[in-house]
Amino acid sequence: MDLSEIKKLRTRAGMSQTDLAKKAGVSQAHIAKIEAGKVDPRFSTVERILRCLREEQKEHCSRYMTKTIFGVQADDSVASAGRLMRQRGVSQIVVFRGEGVVGLITEEDLLRFKGDSDSTNSEDVMSDSPPTVSKNTSADAVRDLLLEFPAVVVMDREKAVGIITKSDLLKRI
């Protein structure tokens, strides 16, 4: 491989020299020298850089997640959950306790509910918490989860930053 290809791959991946250097465990100056052809790097260094670039080119779920998460707090009423789903035209909403994800209310959960929707808390009718993934999780891994669950919540550290449903994946086709 011609080392000048590294720059093309890096720019195609939308990475700066600094970003690539951090991921590959080398200095930004070393990346610049490699791209300019001023040094002959070790094979292991080139291998690490290429591995980082290949990883960056994978399709990550953050590229197609919906950034707006519709949800209710666990102690909000079932009636307010149903209203939110109708108003927003969604088939499921996330149930939070503070900022933590504790469950999911789906259309099916509401259809099964037989009680006073104004005095029953959302947590009393919710399904289990949906799976959570990092924003760098591959599209393939999320697809596999969606075969088992109605939604996947995308996390950045401890904060929910997006949601992916089956319809989000179908938009990619």
Structure explained in plain terms:
The chain is of the alpha/beta class and 173 residues long. The protein has two domains: 5-57, 434 Repressor (Amino-terminal Domain) (Orthogonal Bundle), CATH 1.10.260; 63-171, CBS-domain (Roll). Helix content is 41%, strand content 18%. The protein has helices at 5-12, 17-24, 28-36, 43-57, 78-88, 107-112, 139-146, 166-171; strands spanning 71-73, 92-97, 100-106, 132-134, 151-156, 159-165. The chain has a three-stranded mixed β-sheet. Strands 4-5-6 form a three-stranded mixed β-sheet. A hairpin with a 2-residue loop joins strand 5 and strand 6.
Q: What would the keywords be for this entry?
A:
173 residues, alpha/beta, 434 Repressor (Amino-terminal Domain), CBS-domain, 2 domains, three-stranded mixed β-sheet, 8 helices, elongated
SSE pattern: HHHHEHEEHEHEEH
Distance between the termini: 33 Å
Low-confidence stretches: none
Shape: elongated
Strand order of the largest sheet: 1-2-3
Tally of helical runs:
8
- CATH class division of the largest domain: Alpha Beta
CATH superfamily of the largest domain: CBS-domain
Integer-rounded radius of gyration: 22 Å
Helix content: 40-55%
Largest sheet: 3 strands, mixed
Number of domains: 2
Number of E strands: 6
List the helices and strands and how they pair.
Layout: H1 5-12, H2 17-24, H3 28-36, H4 43-57, E1 71-73, H5 78-88, E2 92-97, E3 100-106, H6 107-112, E4 132-134, H7 139-146, E5 151-156, E6 159-165, H8 166-171
Parallel strand pairs: 1-2, 4-5
Antiparallel strand pairs: 2-3, 5-6
